[in-house]
Amino acid sequence: MACAAGALMFVPWPEPAPPAGAGGRPFIWNQDQRWQALEVAFQRARESGCAGSRPRAEAMLGHARGLVAGAAAGRVGPESVVFDEIERTTFELGPIVAACPETIPEYVRLVTRMRSAVKRQSRHWDMRLAATRTRMYRLLYGGRSALEEAVLQAPPGFFPPLVPGDDEPSVTPSAEVLGVTVHSGDILVSRGGVPTSALIARGNDFPGNFSHVALVHIDERSHEASVIEAHIERGVAVSSLPSYLKDVKLRVMVLRLRSDLPKMTADPMLPHRAAVAALAETRRRHIPYDFAMDFADHSKLFCSEVVSAAYEPFGVTLWMGLSRISSPGLVAWLSRFGVRHFETQEPSDLEYDPQLTVVAEWRDLQTLYSDHIDNAVVDAMLEGAEQGDALGYPWLLLPLARAVKAYSSLLNAVGLVGPVPEGLSAAGALRNRQFSRMHAAIKQRVVLLASKFERVHGYRPPYWDLVDLARRARAAFRPGGRFAGGRSAARLPATERAWTLCPNTSRTTASAWPTSSGGARCARAR
Question: pTM, whole model, 2 decimals?
């Protein structure tokens, strides 16, 4: 009997077929020739030097400022050709600015003004239309990408970590966060530093830059700031501001409800009341993490849902354009982590909601290049998913994973946090481990290839080249951590070698960090 029971621990439980996705059409730039032309333009601009490139950069910046000013005047629809010209000029400016970094500050102001103009015009657009969503994405995500490509080619000191947006008026209690005056009810959209943070950001019909959402509460008397957020390992919780900032953040964007919305003019304290209610509900009951990503059922909450559920009772419906996850391979992978709803609320898409103003955006410039590499690796891995790559796991580890899951369930029953969170299966934890190891091995090879690229060309590979390098690395990768030809992948760093069931699979993620004794402990990262 004991042998039979032990043998059963090795048997995987039947898993349902992957559900249907959202049925949308994932966005594809499909402009390889354009990207190559931009790279050639950068090479020529580098040869000319800043002295030769600056006059052209300043002329193009002036032209672009005129275009943005025109787009900000009156009402302009998403189909307007002025936006086509703004997009073209923004991208073509990138390589010229990169070759003359003294012009980067003006380029930053241009991209920021362009975002403000587009968001202002979008107040009159139908966010349900695919054409509207595509226009918003091409300009906002595209503008951020063009800017960061230029920044990554420049020496340090030309780009500020904090870029102010629009100072949306607010009367709610406030505090200073990362050099920004943040008000109660503000929304923090951030990017974590582990592989699954990149999966969250990129796993969307419109791949983005953000992986986590949290709600700010600021006490009226003490002005102490706290953050309400969903952790996969312990559900919805209230974090102090230092605790929130201690977790790895590659970038943070502050969003604020517009003060001229009808609900806001009737009740300017609405954001604070939403934060107060969310804080009280979090303290009143245990709210498990929602792996299914069902934003309509608030018995469990994922990170985006924490914010949307807080504002919903006050008549504000966020994510005017819902996120869609349609690619079959991506849907199959996410479903193995428990995701069941593929028309949902993704962190990156909240920026496009016209009800919200971008107050500021902060980036960790020391890790921006690594952020881009993480994205490129995930993009290549997801291409593999569409080609049939399965996200498996070593079945020999299943008995141990199930034992740890059972132990975690006992801890959950008495209100404690276990190594495997509520809602995540033992197989899901193992898949998370496998995804992270695959990402780490492919990334390490990409870093080597990118270093070789930089030695040969004299500059860092731009994103399209990083994706190509990641494709090559993924094509050579074999399950088990080996590359084609039988050669072992380069030795992983200790943070990746340490094996644990600490998950990092969904909205809030965790990774294994080595302890002084050589073991590992869980550290959250969103």
Answer: 0.89
